[in-house]
Amino acid sequence: MSDSVTYAVSEGVATITLNRPDAMNALDTPTKVLLRDTVLAAADDPAVRVVVLTGTGRAFCVGQDLKEHIGLLQANDQAALWSTVPDHFAPIALALAEMPKPVIAAINGVAAGAGASMAFACDFRVVADTAGFNLAFTGIALSCDTGISWTLPRLIGQAKALELLYFPRTVPAAEALDLGLATSVVPAADLETAVADLATKLAAGPTVAYGSVRRSLSYSASHTLAEALVFEATKMQLTGSTEDHHNAVSAFVAKQKPTFTGR
Question: What's this model's pTM, rounded to 2 decimal places?
Fold first, then answer.
């Protein structure tokens, strides 16, 4: 069993940690398989109300392990080279973006290539002031993957997305905040505390409502207003039937602060 991805759950917060610090958390095949399966497990775990994705060492994740990639190129193993996109990268991106609970990327270091893509699929990106993003794909003459063609323009607009993808460079934390790539930037020494505070707040919130909001926003991005209105109605009915909604309304009437259980 590989330990290149670790998983821990505490008080409703699942922390998924990429654990190949010597390789800057590059994604070889065993790591991609384990990361995909771990993210899917967190999405389906009813005990998990918020997910945190982070890395160990000086990088968040630098994307595909190029040492492995070069070996596959030299072996001309076309199946292994390109099946990884639909088999690994795409399911990871979809699970991060569409699971029915909030997801935080704790960016402890550089996030490059698919590492940046994964971060952009999350709801929040809390970034250490020493970290940054590099959209490295065209630097090695490849197109983009892991959902970045969908997420990046929605974060920063089409023109800026094209610029950063055409001309890869490391975007430092402060600029990432200005562009909208980062949700917040904190001193590196404070990253763990800042992420824990946000995760704790989200884990104590109305989980079904959070999941419904993120799915509604995702749906509306590729559907008409009329279709989005219908989808919204289904999510209002779903959330309206939750214990959290009924308890919150009762608390409002009683002028009390509601307590949410995520159900």
Answer: 0.94
